């Protein structure tokens, strides 16, 4: 689905259109589940988080500004922030190796794998065009779920500088990916 189509669905969800919400869920749930799973690293927590995220989307759809941001970026930001909140509230995880064998990993079909590989290559190529420290900060924030405070401490920069780095880096990535 195109960004314009997702924007239209979010606008309709803001008007409490259940059919639009179903369509939005169908179009975006796989991507948001991937974000949840990547950050939380726990399938059950990711499934629970995804449900909570879509409740937030239902309640916050009227706050989406169509002209200001990409709709998928807005949805991913909601998912990312929620997952970080879950991580902060998480009790220390037990490490029972016997449970690992019970977790089935769904594999993508060949077409999905090819698409994902191509998109991944484009993203990594664009990340390679960033300064090494900024690329590391982007990976930490958006792939590992690190907070701005953690990243600022790791890179020995003030918090507002880290926010600026991430914002400018995302703008550069957007330009690169749209080219």
Could you list some keywords that capture this structure?
2 domains, mainly alpha
Explain the overall architecture.
The relative contact order is 0.09. Helix 2 packs across helix 4 (71-89), helix 5 (110-128) packs across helix 8 (159-178) and helix 7 crosses helix 8. Helices cover 73% and strands 0% of the residues. The protein has helices spanning 3-14, 18-40, 43-60, 71-89, 110-128, 132-142, 148-155, 159-178. The protein folds into 2 domains: 1-90, Orthogonal Bundle (Rna Polymerase Sigma Factor, Chain: A); 95-179, Orthogonal Bundle (Arc Repressor Mutant, subunit A). It contains 8 helices and no strands. With 179 residues, it is mainly α. The longest helix has 23 residues, at 18-40.
The biggest sheet amounts to: none
The percentage of residues in β strands lies in: under 5%
Taking the alpha carbons of the first and last residues, their distance comes to 19 Å
Q: What is CATH's topology name of the largest domain?
A: Rna Polymerase Sigma Factor, Chain: A
Query: For the record, what is the CATH homologous superfamily label of the largest domain?
Result: RNA polymerase sigma factor, region 2, helix turn helix motif
Structural class: mainly alpha
The dominant shape is: globular
Task: Chart the SSEs and their pairings.
Elements: H1 3-14, H2 18-40, H3 43-60, H4 71-89, H5 110-128, H6 132-142, H7 148-155, H8 159-178
């Amino acid at each position: 689905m195109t960004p314009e189509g997702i924007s239209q669905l979010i606008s309709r969800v803001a008007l409490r259109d259940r059919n639009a919400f179903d369509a939005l869920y169908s179009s975006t749930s796989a991507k948001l589940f991937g974000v949840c799973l990547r950050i939380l690293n726990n399938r059950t927590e990711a499934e629970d988080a995804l449900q909570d995220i879509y409740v937030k989307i239902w309640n916050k759809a009227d706050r989406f500004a169509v002209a200001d941001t990409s709709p998928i970026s807005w949805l991913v930001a909601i998912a990312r922030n929620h997952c970080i909140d879950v991580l902060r509230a998480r009790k220390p995880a037990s490490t029972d190796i016997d449970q690992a064998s019970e977790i089935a990993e769904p594999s993508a079909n060949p077409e999905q794998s090819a698409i994902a590989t191509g998109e991944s290559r484009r993203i990594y190529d664009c990340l390679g065009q960033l300064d090494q420290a900024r690329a590391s900060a982007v990976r930490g924030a958006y792939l590992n779920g690190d907070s701005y405070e953690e990243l600022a401490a790791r890179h020995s920069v003030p918090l507002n500088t880290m926010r600026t780095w991430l914002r400018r880096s995302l703008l550069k990535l957007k330009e690169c990916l749209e080219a």
